[in-house]
Amino acid sequence: MPASRTISRRRLAAVAALPLLAVVVTSCGYGSDAEQADQKDDKAAPAAAGKALSADTVKIGYFPNLTHATALVGIEEGLFQKELGGTKVAPSTFNAGPSEIEALNAGSIDIGFIGPSPAINGYTQTKGQSLRIIGGSASGGVKLVVNPAKIKTLDDLKGKKIATPQLGNTQDVAFLNWIAEKGWKVDAQSGKGDVSVVRTDNKITPDAYKSGSIDGAWVPEPTASKLVSEGAKELLNESDLWPDKQFVITNIIVSQKFLGEHPDVVEAVLRGSVKTNEWINANEDQAKASANEALKKLSGKALPPEILDPAWQSIQIINDPLAATLQAEADHAVKAGLLEKPDLKGIYDLRPLNKVLRAAGRPEVADAGLGVK
User: Fold this and answer.
1) Would you say 54 and 261 are in contact if contact means Cβ atoms under 8 Å apart?
2) Distance between CA 138 and CA 365 in Å, rounded?
């Protein structure tokens, strides 16, 4: 696993996605605050000068989230378009993983930035026929934040009410796994036990915290930093629970059909991703401002500095999909009783990315035995 330059001194890690599959409601969007597509922009960006590749247009989907900074910045700064030449970029944004997977399956998008959970669901539910994971994008950005008047140590969580975004989503499974490792008991479905796990949409978690109906939350950014800005205290960063303080939060996926028909376009998008990540890590302040400007255009509202700055610092922008962590995350869901063990072999095709990395003189990345043969 190559060392990637982090956008912060702290290598904070994100919660990795746990598959929901048939046991858990699949409307849960990994790292998402909504359950349906929020915005869509089918207008292609003006193409750069040059000849189009094998496709006139490539349709790219992503979330208006900081954990999708590669897409936000790469499109905002025209870095993808530069690599694609005369092939136009047509961006679409989503706020839920299942909606993006549906769009990929329907051909409404060709390539997407997405969390591992919906990627796993999309792969397994179509018996490995719909998509491949072709690269990484981000690690980090999930924290346990608590009311410091009620909780001072991790042991104080026993008997308290802690929010997660949704039953079976990645933060929920990560918290259930942490509880089990403490030796405490919680019924995964109801959330009742030694700790009360309260499934609460990220959009209303701050209000629930202010009202006192929850004592803390295991949540992704920027919800965690919003809670801290309102008086909560960070008690644990999930990165501390993982080897090398890294695990996947955002992947790049592609339709298998598009990959087969337009490998040159896929390779160009991956070049754009690698170059965008390099620019982000080399130009932190400019990249942060660019991502926030993109969020403002997409959602109508930029993040204030007291939320943007700590949230940005907790995310690593990387090329490596951290494939070795994917099976571990799935195992956590199986252990929690939320998932039957999936067969993930073939979910990755990292050959195009490794070709790009070799050309750039960078170390290749591994598929942990889960790649195509």
Assistant:
1) yes
2) 14
> What are the tens digits of pLDDT across the range 228-266?
999 999 999 999 999 899 989 999 999 999 999 999 999
Report residue 107: phi and psi, to 5°: 85, 10
In sequence order, the 6+-apart residues with CB closer than 8 A to the CB of 24 are: 167, 168, 338, 339
Residue by residue, DSSP assigns 136-173 as: EEEEE-EEEEE-TTT-SSGGGGTT-EEEESSTTSHHHH
How far apart are alpha carbons 289 and 279 in whole angstroms? Answer: 13
Contact of 121 with 90, CB cutoff 8 Å: no
Helix H segments across the chain? 69-76, 79-84, 97-106, 116-125, 170-181, 205-211, 223-229, 256-261, 263-282, 284-299, 305-313, 323-335, 351-359
Q: Is the pTM of the predicted complex or chain greater than 0.90? A: no
Contact 320, 1 (CB under 8 A): yes
pLDDT of residue 98: 82
Tell me what pLDDT residue 49 has.
62
Low-confidence ranges of the chain (pLDDT < 70): 1-49
Q: Which of 230, 237, 212, 225 is nearest to 154 (CA)?
A: 237
Distances (CA, A) of 99 to 29, 51, 94, 125, 358: 8, 32, 7, 14, 34
What length does the chain have?
Answer: 373
The distance from CA 291 to its chain's CA centroid, rounded to whole angstroms, is 15
